[in-house]
Amino acid sequence: MEVEPIRDMADVKRFYKWLNENRTPREAECFLIGCNVALRAGDLLKLKFSDISGKYIDLNEQKTGKYKRIPITQVILDSVERLKAYYSSKKFYISKEFEPVYLFQSTGSRAYHLCQPVCIQWLSICFKEAAKALELDYNVNTHSMRKTWGYQAYTRGEDILYIQALFNHSNQRVTLNYIGVTRSTIEKMYIDNSMDFA
User: Fold this and answer.
1) Whole-angstrom distance, CA of residue 10 vs CA of residue 64
2) pTM of the predicted model, to two decimals?
3) Is 108 helix (H, G, I), strand (E, B) or coil?
4) Tens of pLDDT, residues 33-54
5) Which domain holds residue 119?
6) Least crowded by CB within 10 Å, which of 53, 74, 76, 180?
């Protein structure tokens, strides 16, 4: 089953809220930042607090090896502040001082002696639980963050050529399919934009 973007902004907000209330702010802020930077989950989870120090996030994509520069917006800065507050409000370990390095640092008992981010599998489980609880009847996982960014940018009127370039896709059709502008979406456009001028 194909992974889908979350198309409705009301559902995007409900998804964030559910993660915040039923998981932790770490998962919720990961979702928020992920929907704002359009990175693959592997690249997103490797982000460190030290990466959010200037005007840009600079990295080489894990999958393609291509260099990427992402502006750090106020939304990202606010999210990072909420993460810092979350980490400082908890005592995760009894005999070891907890100092987060990664934005989405693993805090479980198995990570006691390690400094690593949460794993993609854990995040995927959280996202699937949220989708089920919110009764979203399509496949949501970690890749949905990236697709949600693309879908929302497209529906706000961004040029598909720029979205294609951001995703490093070979053509527009690949990008449209990737962000969920499928046959059913096109059919809905016909219905929503029918013109009766008789």
Assistant:
1) 33
2) 0.90
3) coil
4) 999 999 999 999 999 999 999 9
5) 9-158
6) 74
